[in-house]
Amino acid sequence: MDKLTINTFIAAIDDLESGQYKVLSVLKGYKDQLRQHKIYPVLTDLVELMNLLEELSNKKNRFQSIFPKKIEKIDLKNKKIIYSNEEISDAEVEKLFEFIYWAHPEITEALNEARAILDFVKQNLRVEEIGIVPIYRNEGYFFVPDNRQEQEQVYRFEMSFLPTGNVSFNVMKTNLVETLRNSERSEKEFAEFKLDLIKRHPEMPNPATFRCQTDLDFPFAETIFPVAKSILASKLAA
Asked: 84-94 b/e with 16+ CB inside 10 Å = b?
């Protein structure tokens, strides 16, 4: 799936019509994904893009002093700005920001749609403890339903906190342990599954274990799992 980057906006300085077509085309692709209830990576892409455009807009008055030469492209992988030999003119700066202002409401509409679906999923998804939760809760197991495939996915998770300045970021690693069919799930209680996991993985004798519950049959990889994972991370960080 194509995505919008700052390079899309820089290219529009030379070809406004082509730039508008590119933005509308990519946004249509994003909205098609959202109408299939696929939240990610659409939401992440839109949030990153909106933050970048707002940062540029806030620096409009200093744009020429920051970027005296015309930007040829931005290498996001290597975090480098590549300049051409041509200096950017006042007219080109105005053209760039006119394009940004034109695109802003279009991007906002798609972003609001993604956030609305995210809110709906969060309201219809619960994460609960299985059994007694130990004092150390940052490592254990997580059951997440894939209702579309009639399966229960069992993950091992590990939560860590990375301090950056005055803020700590939560980082959760997950590994798929096994997949249970719904028929298997109905035959045993989740507490029994937890005991089975402890027997088979004795290196973790008292794991924190959680279960996600939802009736939604939305796409698992693009919606259910990342939202469930986010809710669990917030629960552990509280």
From this structure: eeeebeeebbe
